[in-house]
């Protein structure tokens, strides 16, 4: 949905547990199901890393190894881009209010220290027990596992408006998106000087991370908009099958192989050769909030739904094929001589000739009821990464916006783009190549 594509789809130690079984494990042992999932009561990265235990097993025998549950904040590239998608997301856009570049630099230095600690499941600050001061950490993640938390930072076009003397460092690929067919953009879900993508296998932990980043930013940046998102949890689908969106179809089948370094250099990672050395090893992110008209979709026949996507709903296979990853055959005709995959099917338009790809990292969202219509405000928080949006995401979305059959059922209500920094080594700070 924006679905562009088919190519999409796609420090200090935390406090000891004192050998007590945590609330999360009590819920597991009690057999809590779906309600617990929504409350973040389970996730692929539990503190005990999925080990099967009986209620009778002594707590003292429970291992406390968290290493498999940690994604390091440091590295050549930022985590959260090619990292396997976690269960939950909170995306936030900030507007910078700092008066001087030095203040912005200090913000990113503080954010780096905090993000690296929270990725390891650590609380912020040295002490939380001074009764005369606010705690150094908000506390809602105390005792919880790291849950494979990743925090990914980028800056938007408006960051380079001249306030901080950086106008000349704005990369050409960081361009404002043109108007697309199906756009009904709203300011409260668009733009931003800084974009922050927080992912984790526990929503409470993701919220904790964003909340503390916003707290650290006081006096230097303010929240502009946020959106939470989810997919089926890792525990509900241990096979790791391609997730389904809220229309019931698999979302992300055609993503490029993130383990193929050459492919990632071609599709995702920016290069100094692109014209802006500070972005070497970074990537460009497009974010689109796409509302689905689920009530209309739910009244559509299965045949119409499959023709819209160009895929079978149950298997995810292309129409006329059997398996999800079978090759797309756009030349195949039915008994009446019509294309088996309709000319305006989403998969056909998104795929094109197969040469233009993006890496999508999208999540479903549900934001309650639209008070004006009484209908669900639910859909897709579309996020993709590419080396140059002018050559990848923009032409792909222009094609989709013109004639995608899916446009009957969706509307784009939010939009933003960000240049996501290269990774950073321990001892450095995120954004240092720019600042």
UniProtKB/TrEMBL annotation:
Show where the Dyp-type peroxidase C-terminal domain sits. 242-424
Instruction: Please state where this protein is localized.
Output: Cell envelope
* Residue segments, region Disordered: 1-20, 127-147, 229-259
Major place of residence = other
Asked if the Swiss-Prot or TrEMBL record annotates the protein with the keyword Heme, the reply is yes
Q: Provide this UniProt record's keywords sorted from A to Z.
A: Heme, Iron, Lyase, Membrane, Metal-binding, Oxidoreductase, Peroxidase, Signal, Transmembrane, Transmembrane helix
An annotated GO BP: iron import into cell
Q: Which SUPFAM superfamilies match?
A: Dimeric alpha+beta barrel
Give the E.C. number(s). 1.11.1.-
Highest rank taxon of the organism: Bacteria
Q: Which Pfam families match?
A: Dyp_perox_C, Dyp_perox_N
Has keyword RNA-binding? no
Q: Name one GO molecular function term.
A: ferrochelatase activity
* Catalyses which reaction(s): heme b + 2 H(+) = protoporphyrin IX + Fe(2+)
Question: What is the stated purpose of this protein?
Answer: Involved in the recovery of exogenous heme iron. Extracts iron from heme while preserving the protoporphyrin ring intact.
What family does the Swiss-Prot or TrEMBL record give for this protein?
Belongs to the DyP-type peroxidase family.
Name of this protein: Deferrochelatase
């Amino acid at each position: 949905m924006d679905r562009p594509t088919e190519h999409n789809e796609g420090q200090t130690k935390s406090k000891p547990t004192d050998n007590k079984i945590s609330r999360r494990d009590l819920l597991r042992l009690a057999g809590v199901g779906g309600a617990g999932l929504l409350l973040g009561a389970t996730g692929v990265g539990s503190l005990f890393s999925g080990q099967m235990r009986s209620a009778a097993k002594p707590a003292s025998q429970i291992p406390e190894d968290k290493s498999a549950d940690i994604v390091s904040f440091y590295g050549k590239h930022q985590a959260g881009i090619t990292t396997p998608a976690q269960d939950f997301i909170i995306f936030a856009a900030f507007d910078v209010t700092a008066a001087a570049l030095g203040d912005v630099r200090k913000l990113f230095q503080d954010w780096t220290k905090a993000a690296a600690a929270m990725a390891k499941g650590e609380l912020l600050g040295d002490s939380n027990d001074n009764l005369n001061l606010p705690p150094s950490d908000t506390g809602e993640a105390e005792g919880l596992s790291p849950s494979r938390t990743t925090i990914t930072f980028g800056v938007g076009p408006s960051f380079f408006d001249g306030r901080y003397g950086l106008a000349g460092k704005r990369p050409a690929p960081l361009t404002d998106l043109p108007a697309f067919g199906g756009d009904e953009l709203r300011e409260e879900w668009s733009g931003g000087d800084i974009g922050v993508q927080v992912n984790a296998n526990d929503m409470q932990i993701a919220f904790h991370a964003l909340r503390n980043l916003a707290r650290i930013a006081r006096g230097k940046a303010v929240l502009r908009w946020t959106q939470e998102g989810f997919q089926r949890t890792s525990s509900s689908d241990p096979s790791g099958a391609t997730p389904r969106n809220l229309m019931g179809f698999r979302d992300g089948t055609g993503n490029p192989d993130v383990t193929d370094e050459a492919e990632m250099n071609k599709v995702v990672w920016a290069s100094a050769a692109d014209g802006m050395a500070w972005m070497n090893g970074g990537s460009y992110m497009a974010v689109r909030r796409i509302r689905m008209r689920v009530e209309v979709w739910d009244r559509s026949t299965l045949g119409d739904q499959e023709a819209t996507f160009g895929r079978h709903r149950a298997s995810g296979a292309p129409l006329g094929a059997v398996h999800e990853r079978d090759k797309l055959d756009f030349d195949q005709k039915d008994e009446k001589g019509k294309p088996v995959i309709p000319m305006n099917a989403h998969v056909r338009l998104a795929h094109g000739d197969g040469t233009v790809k993006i890496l999508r990292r999208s999540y479903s969202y549900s934001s309650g009821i639209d008070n004006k219509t009484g209908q669900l405000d639910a859909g897709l928080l579309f996020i993709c990464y590419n080396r140059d949006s002018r050559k990848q995401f923009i032409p792909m979305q222009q094609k989709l916006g013109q004639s995608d059959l899916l446009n009957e059922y969706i509307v784009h209500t939010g939009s933003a783009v960000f240049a996501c920094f290269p990774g950073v080594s321990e001892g450095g700070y995120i954004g240092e190549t720019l600042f």
